[in-house]
Amino acid sequence: MTPFLPHTLLALTAVLSLSIAALVPVPPSLDPFYNPPAGFEAEEPGTILRNRTVDPALFGLLPNGAEGYQLLYRTSAIDGSAIADVTTVFVPLIGAMTDRFVAFQNPYDSSATICNPSYTYQLGSVQTDLITTIIALAMQLFIGRGAPDIVGVGYSGGSIATGWAAQLQPTYAPELSIKGWSSGGTPANITGVSVFVDNTAVSGFLPAALNGLSRNSSYGATLKPLIDSIITPYGQAYLDFANVNCGPADILAFTGQSIFETHFQTKGRDLLYDPAFQYVLADCLMGQRKNETPTAPVFMFHANNDEIIPYENATTLYNEWCDFGADVQFTTYGSGGHLTTEVVSLLAQLEFTASAFAGTVPGGCSMKTSLNNTLNPLDFALDLEPIVVNLLTVLLNLGEQDANLLENIAGLHNTSGVQS
Ligand SMILES: *[C@@H]1O[C@H](CO)[C@@H](O)[C@H](O)[C@H]1NC(C)=O
Ligand SMILES: *[C@@H]1O[C@H](CO)[C@@H](O)[C@H](O)[C@H]1NC(C)=O
Ligand SMILES: *[C@@H]1O[C@H](CO)[C@@H](O)[C@H](O)[C@H]1NC(C)=O
Ligand SMILES: *[C@@H]1O[C@H](CO)[C@@H](O)[C@H](O)[C@H]1NC(C)=O
Ligand SMILES: *[C@@H]1O[C@H](CO)[C@@H](O)[C@H](O)[C@H]1NC(C)=O
Ligand SMILES: *[C@@H]1O[C@H](CO)[C@@H](O)[C@H](O)[C@H]1NC(C)=O
């Protein structure tokens, strides 16, 4: 199948970037900054290997009022091997507080390096991934709100990173002063997610997820031989596509399709019962081990009509973390779907972040429901209002219930053109 729509999108974003072509940053695959220096494996996890300043921008176009720094640092992969990763640090130009740090996990839902947030955050970058672009607006609300105390924030794909960081920090990085975790639309159970989104408008997340899980540094040793032995040429074409395209393009290309059918891989539905596949998905399940329980307070929130990440899998995680002694406040959003909830919950996320820094989050576990599906820009500080208005404009185009995500995401490409 020829995924012509993503090309339209790429053309659109390319045109937008043309006027500032001189400033266009090099894509990650061609950017030597991302390649760690020889011998980096011997450094301690967390060691900064390279640093540079960047010009941060919203939509790749609008300077975001912060200085940007990027750090290439040594870390440990799922398989225990040493890898290097890039993070972007934003320091507000005005009123920076030096005692706090918000770790914002951006859900970039992709196995292609061109979608790296460290690239798309930069002035002049091609906005290949509209999801990352919108999330950068939400992130903007946290810049300036936050050895400094740390609160970790994420939603959806960003909550894979947030949930796992929350679980692993007590043993992996106990020296950090973590004050809280805000985790929304949490993909606690990726088996649940895969059966939930397969054959839907958003099945396109799955080929990218298979790519990610098959990387050497994650579960490649277990999963790659299996996938290689069963993938059809048809399936391989989608894996290849996902390795060079971002989430929205992947979604459009693979809408309504299934990775559990024999024209994608020869095992069909039986793949779910393959021991190697089960091992990998089971290992990715959050909340299984008492020594992997967050020790800082957690704010979980989730739409009960979430059409992408199953709600019950998140409440299951809530129960498990609470049984293991974690402090978790869980808010169920009763109106709106996955994307609406991300935006409508922003005030609650900011409030939690502020209480976490202040150390005033109540202990224990509690659940509540919010039926509120409105976000009032006036509830935010004056300087944040334009950002909230931008977010709401995007949201209006998404429709209140996110019912038809595919069309909505397609429409979004047009919207961003207008806004830029
Ligand atoms: C940043 O890189 C420069 C060299 O390019 C080095 O002198 C400096 O120590 C680095 N800073 C950090 C925090 O690693
Ligand atoms: C994870 O999802 C799978 C598939 O839906 C389900 O069978 C399993 O019970 C779930 N496990 C947990 C702990 O949520
Ligand atoms: C991944 O591992 C395989 C088997 O060890 C090796 O042949 C391949 O070169 C590795 N790929 C990368 C990108 O390191
Ligand atoms: C996880 O979500 C899947 C998909 O909706 C569902 O089938 C399964 O029952 C859920 N399991 C648990 C334990 O939450
Ligand atoms: C819903 O949230 C909005 C914006 O935060 C607020 O102005 C309004 O009072 C809330 N409505 C209810 C019923 O809580
Ligand atoms: C973008 O807008 C144009 C004009 O309104 C419309 O014809 C086109 O289908 C839209 N494209 C997408 C991807 O929604």
From TrEMBL:
<feature type="signal peptide">
    <location>
        <begin position="1"/>
        <end position="21"/>
    </location>
</feature>
<dbReference type="InterPro" id="IPR005152">
    <property type="entry name" value="Lipase_secreted"/>
</dbReference>
<dbReference type="GO" id="GO:0004806">
    <property type="term" value="F:triacylglycerol lipase activity"/>
</dbReference>
<dbReference type="InterPro" id="IPR029058">
    <property type="entry name" value="AB_hydrolase_fold"/>
</dbReference>
<keyword id="KW-0378">Hydrolase</keyword>
<comment type="similarity">
    <text>Belongs to the AB hydrolase superfamily. Lipase family.</text>
</comment>
<dbReference type="Pfam" id="PF03583">
    <property type="entry name" value="LIP"/>
</dbReference>
<keyword id="KW-0732">Signal</keyword>
<dbReference type="GO" id="GO:0016042">
    <property type="term" value="P:lipid catabolic process"/>
</dbReference>
<protein>
    <recommendedName>
        <fullName>Triacylglycerol lipase</fullName>
    </recommendedName>
</protein>
